[in-house]
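Protein 1 of 2
SEQ + STRUCT:
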Amino acid sequence: MPSGSGAEGEARSFRMFHDDSMKSFFRRLTFTPDGSYLLTPAGCVESGENVTNTTYVFSRNNLKRPVGHLPCPGKGTLAVRCCPVYFELRGASAKDEISPKSPPALFSLPYRLVFAVASEDSVLFYDTEQSFPFGYVSNIHYHTLSDISWSSDGSFLAISSTDGYCSFVTFEEDELGVPLKEKPQIHVRTPGAAADKKAKKTQSHKENKLDFLEARHPNLCISRPSPHPSFLTTGA
């Protein structure tokens, strides 16, 4: 990734992710449940000889450059998993408890999402209303963590390790937040939908031109294309 200039004005490049020197057989990235953001582990931020482990946040609208990152103070991050439950935004009282010096939120959503980031030896818990973790779990396994997974109701997080054991982090009712009564309506544009919309717009434009020609030249014989393709069949 190009960033800044060298001592002699030459552009310098920095790696965004760890290479194969990172001792991991997997890098488990994920989209948020609404598909708005892509969360990618195994990131790194190079500053001179110092390297900070991080998790990058990409917007679905622009996957070329991250909109932010979530530093991990310990070892490299391996996996990101989002809680499938949508939560209400915090009230004014809860916002007052957050320090005014807190970093601004990286996400702009009408609801609150919770996700967990697993590093080699710890798990950090984040939500989409703040850019620093609200929970931290470590020293629960003898070897490197391998994966994490939420229950369907968000009541617990399962953590697996290469030592052959699993741990469970449980949450009391409403501990993570107040769930929305109904899941929000998600409107996400996909490449296929955009192509269909463009094709319909083009077809409508052609039909308008034909209507105009028929109005100007009523005696003109105009052949309109069939909306459905025809197939020729031949007998044996």
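Protein 2 of 2
SEQ + STRUCT:
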Amino acid sequence: MRGRIHSSLRGWSRTLSRTLLSVINEVAEFHIIDKTLCLSYPLVAKTLQEAYAKDKPKNHEHTSPHCCGAMALVNELLGVDLPQSYKKETWQMDENERLNALPRLRLEGNELYQNKKNDEASKIYAQAIGIIEQLQLKEKQGEPEWQALADMKIPFLLNYSQCQLLMGNYYEVIEQCSQVLIQPPNNVKALFRRGMAHLNAWNPNEAKNDFEVCFPYLSYSLNYYPIINYKFYLPSRKQLCKLEEMTREKNKTNKAWLSQQITSLGLSD
């Protein structure tokens, strides 16, 4: 038996923890002396055999009788999980634990994003979004508690959308940013990222609208937050000019194609 010790074998986890001394890759062999320690082994063995022998019929003949009286278990310690290092799954957490996990998930996601691990970061943000949505199910929509959770979800939606934008999942960005813009409708980050997604998905009218909607809010904020000029205002202007140029080129291409089709069909004068 290789790998982590199966908890169904009563007593073996305690024996190994004392014998292997938590040395990774150490191998230990144990001979069966007390048969009462193996009462649960047949069920464990049967499950493992069925998993590894999928092609054999269940009623196949065994070449030798089964007996664990003279059996020796060889175990290799592949890793040790300390109690403090164990991370509960979301379904194992209570309400307070889920709320307390959100700051940690945000930090983990931000660190992965800074290291350009966009796919991994988006999964962390998605996990946080899932936790918040589960908590919202316990609240009545529109109530202060529900709204507080909705506000808490916005940064995770924006970060998730940024990762999806960098990975080229433009329609996912459009969907998530639209969710942010339900309330309030003037979130500059959501408008800009949705505009970028529309631009890359070649939805020119929607992209133009998002970039233009940004400007009143950006212009008002420029005097108070100069960094906005660098992060959003100038990029929005640049993307709007790019969109206009792309539209002109697209129109030229369409006109040339249409003219060619008319000529080939003999419809020209």
